[in-house]
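Example record used in the benchmark description.
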Amino acid sequence: MALGFIGLGNLGRAVAQRLTDMNEEIVVYNRTREKVEDLGYKIAKSPKDLIEKCDIVILCLFESDAVENILNMEDGLLEADLEGKTIIDLTTNHFEQVLNFHKIIDERGGEYLESPIFGSVAPALQGLVTIVTSGKKETFDSCKALLEKIGKEIFYLKEPGKASKMKLINNLCLGSFMATIAECTALGDACNISRDKLLEILGVGGGQSLVLKAKTQKLLEEDYSPHFSNNAIYKDLHTLQDLAYSMNQPLYTAAVTKELFGKMKKDGKGEEDFCSIVQLFKD
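Model output (structure tokens):
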């Protein structure tokens, strides 16, 4: 049976393309139908229609409010009979809102896997992202082969909310590394060190990281087309601060890093790739 897919932004399109390359048949739903008509997928008329056609529906949305909308809108997922249906949610969710998704889907007889995806467009196209999943063990086991078509590294943290918290912690590393690499790049430019040589040396020195590998070419070409946007990392770091506040846990580097990306959003660059933060240090 075909897989349902909702959320065809930059990352979602890459994941859907990966699944297509792995011989999965995809049926999609998008609020604005015209935006997905050129992708070659069958299109459902509503989320309810989609999950009635598919036993598994994958969500890859921007935030938890978007997930809530897809669940609760007129002809949303929750209006369908969810018995025998599974929703795999790749969204980076709020650690509290996601608990409600587990609860309401379970109450309606469906299965829900909270499965935030770690990675961006390029690794997603190659099936090289990481996925951390929370939910029922039997549901995870039944979907693991499908998750392995999307990601290279699959981790299971049973307790609802744990996967979302892990994703937020991971994105503290992601945002902090990107900000530091960007500042190093701008300082190297000011020192008249060629950017390609600077990034090559950082890549075998203190800057060695998945972030630098992923963003070297974009920094060299000053290509700020979005794979992972400033808006997305700003949202994630804000949610991370919510988590820390709820635990009375101070965060230091997260506060500074979040505000740097907040400045990018304020400057009208929120939709640019988050490597574009290099501009902040050059101004």
